[in-house]
Write a structure and sequence with these properties.
Elements: H1 20-31, H2 37-43, H3 48-59, E1 100-104, E2 110-114, H4 119-130
Antiparallel strand pairs: 1-2
Helix pairs in contact: 1-3, 2-3
Length: 131
Amino acid sequence: MSGGAIEIITGKERRHRWSAAEKLRIVAEAEEPGACIKAVAARHDVYPSLLFYWRRRVREGRLGPSDPTGFVPVRLLASPSETPGRPAIPAALDASGTAGIDITLPDGVRLHIRHAAQLPLLRPVIAALRG
C-alpha cells in the first residue's frame, strides 16, 4: 500500500429514503435529450440500476406524483332490496360462469376481472387503460 489513500468509515452508512417527488425529478433529468444515465446517477449518488428501476416504474404507471397506493375510487350500486322498483342487477359472470368484478371505464370500455386474477398482472393493464 505505498502512497495509496485509505478511507476509514467510523459509523454505519444509512440508506437514503427518496421521496416520490425526488425520484421523479431524477428520472426527468435522466430522460432529457442527451442525458447519460450513469452521469445522472453519479450526480445524485444513486446506482444506475436503481435509476433504471425507477424509470421502469414510471413507464408502468407505478411511480407517480402521489406514488399510488393501489386504491381506486369505487361507486357501489344499490342492491335491489335497497331500491324498490329497480330491476335486479345480474351477478358479474363470465362465459364459464366464474364470478368476478366488472369495471366500466369513463370511455365506456368494460373489464371483467376474475376472482383469481393476480394484482401484479392487473396493474400494468389498468395503468395502460388510464393512459
